[in-house]
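Worked problem 6 (solution included).
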Amino acid sequence: MKLAVKGKGRGAADRMMQELLLFGALSVGLYFLLLMTVLKLPRCKSTAKLHRKTAIVTGANTGIGKTTAMDLARRGARVILACRDRGRAEAAIQEIVQETGNNQVIFMQLDLASLKSVRSFADNFLRSESRLDLLINNAGLMNSGKTEDGFGMIFGVNHLGHFLLTALLLDRLKASGPSRVVTVASKAYAFGKVDFNCLTTHRDLVLGSNSFQLFLNYSHSKLCNILFTYELAKRLQGSDVTCYSLHPGAIKTEIGRYSGFWWKLFLSPIIFLFFVDAESGAQTTLHCALEPGIEHLSGRFFTQCSPLINIESKARDDAAAQKLWELSERFCGLS
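Solution. The predicted structure is:
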């Protein structure tokens, strides 16, 4: 009797183990199916060659920026890595040169958290380089703190530094046309708003520095990127320069490396399982930079290598876009 009960218990345990193994196999299969379908991003199909063309990529020492610089170098472009950290940038340059065989990849110091540094970069570039065909405003962060000029770090780096950089290089872009300005934004803009009272009073998009407030601040800055591009396209009408903003996808990058412990603990498994690599994330940037025939879409917001049709109305607010531009000019001392 005891042997029969013992045998029955072992049989039930074996069935449970088989069911667990089957569930595990199905889960793994479903996960890889998601990776190959829903989570798989389209590729840039352009075959453009970029010999005798010059490109600037901000934040090009890691992640999407580095992958973008690698692709442009592979196509023969002269690529300027506009980065704050010289050591990391030079390591990236060595890897890009070894991978592509293109020796026209150089480092130029740029700290987007310092308007003085942005001006210095622009001066150095304009003195040393005769043309500019592509400006890739790629760098972004989600850090608390203030910039050298007293702006909120996220607003200062993600929007204001790139705003000033673009403004200072516009004449060279026009002289080199056809040329393009590509700004990496995010679908996180959907959670964003532009509080002009907060900007005017506190030089920031939102107050507070907990993880949720940092995410909101980041979302606000991405809306600023889209409004900036929308307004820039209007101001470039009649020129040979076009501009685009984009959502790169859910990408594994270092953007949240300074986030709080609990925020990282919550996000890490999600990022590991459902976010894709930087090469996939660079594809829409490359599409906007290289795809022929999209000039009539200047000012539009792209995702998955296509313009987003149903963009929210706040990202096409003419009054807000103009007000943000004018306030950014005052902040940068351009007006």
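Discussion: Residues 2-36 form the longest helix (35 residues).
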